[in-house]
Design goal:
Layout (H helix, E strand, L loop, with lengths): L6 H9 L5 H9 L23 H8 L5 H13 L2
Helix pairs in contact: 2-4
Length: 80
Amino acid sequence: MTDKPSLRAYLKRYAQGGIPREEMIATVAAWDFEDEIRDELVIEPIRQDNTFEIVYTAVVLDQITRADLQDIERQMDAHG
């Protein structure tokens, strides 16, 4: 078990109005993402809370917008 905060929970709080947009973008852009674990023998996805895939899923779930995603990616690119 990791002591890291959950990106999934953070984005859910944002979607519920608990976090300002600019703070969310800066926080997610600087997030310490984990490498995604893929196992070809496991059909169901392995539940991880801190991969970049969570950000894409948040768009699909309407927790963040495509514009939010673009701003996150732009900020990540700017900071290398």
